Amino acid sequence: MSEIENGHGLKRRREAITGLGDALRLLIEQATATEAPTEELLRAAELIRRAAAPLGERVRGRFETAAADDLLGGVRLYNPVTGAGSAFAPPLEIHRDGDGAVGTCTLGRAFEGPPSFAHGGVSAMLLDQMLGYAAGAAGHPGMTVRLDTGYRRPVPLYTPLRLTARVAGIDGRRVTVTGTITTAAEPGDVLVEATGVFVALRAEQARRLFGPVLG
Ligand SMILES: CCCCCCCCCCCC(=O)SCCNC(=O)CCNC(=O)[C@H](O)C(C)(C)COP(=O)(O)OP(=O)(O)OC[C@H]1O[C@@H](n2cnc3c(N)ncnc32)[C@H](O)[C@@H]1OP(=O)(O)O
């Protein structure tokens, strides 16, 4: 895409994608929490369809990477957990912390399972990402083959959360990673814990699974 061939164009596009992601997340939050009159819902649906139309005029296919992404550099703007451009992502922000990783996010109404608390599948999704990040950051990237989650207490909505992950063991191609979710205010009180097993791909597997994307 010629408009982002120079560094400035890429920076501007990534900022625009983040801005669109912010707007979409606001839309999802308001659309989920709204008790506006029915007429307003009908009007909003029409406006949203009109706003979406030009975005659909030029789209990428299943095996095409987004022009603003850098797959090998780890930039995935539409990742459904961490992507700043994803309407669906909280987004979870992750950084390295010693030999592990720490993540932060706040979940809105769209992630609700039990009333006023997060859906259990959402907690598992956040932890899968955290554990996968910690495995990769430790130099052992792999795909999840197992994820065990223990739900000790419900995860509250609209509350800053803190997530942790660290590699617990390496056995050949298998990496075991553990992680937790707590509130940011009470990091000693574990709400959800997880253990994941990640398997490093053989070169042949990586080619078979991701060859069409990497080209
Ligand atoms: C900074 C960076 C950021 C990077 C940040 C990135 C974050 C990404 C986080 C998201 C990660 C995902 O969601 S990934 C998406 C969800 N996962 C998937 O779709 C994976 C689907 N599974 C597969 O396609 C396959 O299992 C493969 C290709 C991964 C592996 O196939 P395979 O090579 O045939 O597997 P196989 O020989 O049977 O097993 C390999 C080894 O793993 C063990 N193993 C296999 N399954 C299990 C299991 N459930 N529990 C325990 N161990 C298992 C086997 O015993 C064996 O050990 P041994 O005999 O060798 O001792």
TrEMBL record:
Topological type in the membrane: Peripheral membrane protein
Reactions catalysed, as given in the entry: dodecanoyl-CoA + H2O = dodecanoate + CoA + H(+); octanoyl-CoA + H2O = octanoate + CoA + H(+); hexadecanoyl-CoA + H2O = hexadecanoate + CoA + H(+); (5Z,8Z,11Z,14Z)-eicosatetraenoyl-CoA + H2O = (5Z,8Z,11Z,14Z)-eicosatetraenoate + CoA + H(+)
Compartments, record wording: Cell projection, Ruffle membrane; Cytoplasm; Membrane
EC number: 3.1.2.2
Pfam families noted in UniProt: 4HBT
GO molecular function ontology, one term from the record: hydrolase activity
GO BP field: fatty acid metabolic process
GO cellular component terms listed in the entry, alphabetical order: cytoplasm; membrane
Keywords, in A-Z order: Apoptosis, Cell membrane, Cell projection, Cytoplasm, Fatty acid metabolism, Hydrolase, Lipid metabolism, Membrane, Transit peptide
Transit peptide as UniProt keyword: yes
Domain Thioesterase span(s) in chain numbering: 117-183
UniProt key word Repeat: no
Cited CDD domains: PaaI_thioesterase
Signal sequence extent: none
Enzyme class: hydrolase
The family this protein is said to belong to: Belongs to the THEM4/THEM5 thioesterase family.
Name of protein: Acyl-coenzyme A thioesterase THEM4
